[in-house]
Amino acid sequence: MERFENVYGEVENLKGAMLETLAEMIKIPAISPNYGYEGEYDKAEKLLEIIKDWPFDKIERYDAPDERAKNGVRPNILAYYYGKDHDESSRLWVLSHLDVVPPGDLEKWTITDPFTPLIKDDKIYGRGSEDNGQSIVSSLYAVKALMNLGLRPKKTVVLAFVSDEETGSEKGLKWLMENHSELFRKDDLVIVPDGGNVDGSFIEVAEKSILWLRIKVVGKQVHASMPQKGMNAHRIALNLAYKLDKAFHEKYNAKDELFEPAISTFEPTMASNPADSPNIVPGEHTFIFDCRVLPNYKIDDILADAHNIAEELKKEFQDENLPEIHFEVLQRLDAPIPTDPNSKIVQSLKEALINLRGTNPKIGGIGGGTFAAHFRKLGIPAVVWATLDEMAHQPNEYAKISNIVEDAKTIAYLAIN
Q1: Which residues are part of the catalytic machinery?
Q2: Is 209-333 the same fold as 2-207+336-416?
Q3: 220: which of 78, 85, 165, 266 lies 20 to 30 Å off by Cα?
Q4: pLDDT, tens digit, for every residue of 332-341?
Q5: What predicted TM-score, i.e. pTM, was given to this entire model?
Q6: CATH no. of 209-333
């Protein structure tokens, strides 16, 4: 423990450098081309510039092609700091993502502009400060503290800074796994500091499956004073949404206390139609369900049920051609087998939190998706953990400075123990 006290002190000494680095990261709007932006190229370049003189044993860059992005690529960076026996098969991965979400309504940013970092009251404000800049900086300076003290980690540490997490990882971790499978080993231990709670006591080991389902109903538009001449797509869509909501909740009603909430959720979230006047019966109506499904259920079964319910509804109408009902899967992630709560990475992180913070960690699952799921699909145990005020994607997003420092200490503890 005496050795760790030295590391603990060195992390504290690096707090100023952490804030400078995070400020530089916030200034660069690394937003996906999916939203009409350039991607992560400039942010990756800035990160490489910052660490170019650090004594990493190896820094690798893997550019996923994307003609929409700046210079046609989405960068992914791996920085290795070898352990005492760097030939061992098992490494400790710490994964952060370079991309951020768009700022949203600028009028709601009342503390500072989204990409103008501001330090105030133990907080650093700006888009991407918490999601995922905090973890980029915490992981970097956990290793920097070891470097400054001439200490080698017990296992080789791989710091991964990847693109495209916010829009599916097609050009980030998923692309790396599909195109460079040699990078990943079954005995690796993985921590993803991209989710957590305010005191850092929650260790996520499981995720629900995710299904975003868009449903479009086509009827016949007419004047609202003569509805008998048309087919009201809005009314049909409301009826269909009710039937789907009722059927999903009744059939997929199991509980798993590993998760909060402990049930599968099926939430209608968005609706629209082209009627631009109160006196128009709309001929189209579209709505979306956000489904977060316990891992014991299959997404294919839910989709099959949705189609069957739609076909039954169509039989209530005399017209052979209308209504039309179209389904589109906007996003799908089939949950892998959860990480074993008794696995080495879970127990090591639990030990670190007990020893450093005196907390009793809770192990559980979440409804959202992280790229830990991609590791779990390969059979590699992964946990999601960080100390967060949960400001991700919000206006006036911030990272708490004390969280940045304390998480760096925890990552350093994992590295040397």
Answers
A1: 99, 165
A2: no
A3: 266
A4: 989 998 999 9
A5: 0.85
A6: 3.30.70.360
